[in-house]
Amino acid sequence: MVDEARPWLVVGLGNPGREYARHRHNVGFLVADLLADRTGGKFSRHRRAVADVAEGRLGFGGPKLILAKPLTYMNLAGGPAAALAQFFKVPPGQVIAAHDELDLPYGTVRVKCGGGEGGHNGLRSMSKSLGTKEYVRVRVGIGRPPGRQDPADYVLSDFSAVQRKELDFIVDRAADVVESVVSEGVERTQNAYHGG
């Protein structure tokens, strides 16, 4: 049940630092950056959490969004997410994690609430720190590594030249999905976006 008096917390998962900026594992940061652009938010360091935070609204007088990019490494991202959820009084059902997903083909965007973490260290950390798995996940497919490449090496490498040509479109779609979850709910968003 959505509490309309409360903001939504959108946590873009990634690793801080310029050397990680365009890695597959950082697609959540790209989604958070685009949402900040759309809502007029400006990222700055939060005083209570190890995260860059931007605040904005969806449309004039629309729902408030707290956009966060944890400044810890991925496996510790839950700490800042939980600190921000507590600070802004955001219930778990109004926390959205935007993240890369190995188990989806490249470019596919899916949304779900709850479920497992699929080996994703950022999600594992969020579930542990929030004390629940019942938060929303916007999953951005990065596909499986080619051949015998280690998945850990794959997620910590740049998108291929071919993938980069589509990346802006995919991040745009993922941001649309986040906005739809906030304005329409998870089920309607699944119905609207899971067909293609």
Q: Would you give an account of this structure?
A:
The structure is a single chain. With 196 residues, the protein is α/β, with parallel strands linked by helices. It has one domain: 3-Layer(aba) Sandwich (Rossmann fold), CATH 3.40.50. Helices cover 36% and strands 20% of the residues. It has helices spanning 27-39, 78-87, 121-130, 151-155, 161-184, 186-193, and strands at 8-12, 44-45, 51-57, 64-70, 95-101, 109-113, 136-141. It has a seven-stranded mixed beta sheet, with helices on both faces. Strand 2 and strand 3 (51-57) form a beta hairpin. The longest helix has 24 residues, at 161-184. The chain is globular. The chain starts with 7 loop residues before the first strand and ends with a helix. The mean pLDDT is 94.
Task: Please specify the SSE layout and strand pairing.
Layout: E1 8-12, H1 27-39, E2 44-45, E3 51-57, E4 64-70, H2 78-87, E5 95-101, E6 109-113, H3 121-130, E7 136-141, H4 151-155, H5 161-184, H6 186-193
Parallel strand pairs: 1-4, 1-5, 5-7
Antiparallel strand pairs: 2-3, 3-4, 6-7
Nutshell version of this structure?
Helix content is 36%, strand content 20%. With 196 residues, it is an alpha/beta fold.
If classified by CATH, what would the architecture be?
3-Layer(aba) Sandwich
Number of distinct helices? 6
What general outline do the C-alpha atoms trace?
globular
Estimate what percentage of residues fall within beta strands: 15-25%
The CATH superfamily label reads: Peptidyl-tRNA hydrolase
- What CATH first level would be assigned? Alpha Beta
Distance, first to last CA: 27 Å
State the share of residues found in helices, binned by percent. Answer: 25-40%
Q: What is the number of domains?
A: 1
Radius of gyration: 15 Å
Number of strand elements: 7
The largest β sheet comes out as: 7 strands, mixed
What is the mean predicted local confidence, pLDDT? 94
Strand order of the largest sheet: 2-3-4-1-5-7-6
The assembly state of the depicted protein chains is: single chain
CATH fold name:
Rossmann fold
Q: Order of helices and strands, N to C?
A: EHEEEHEEHEHHH
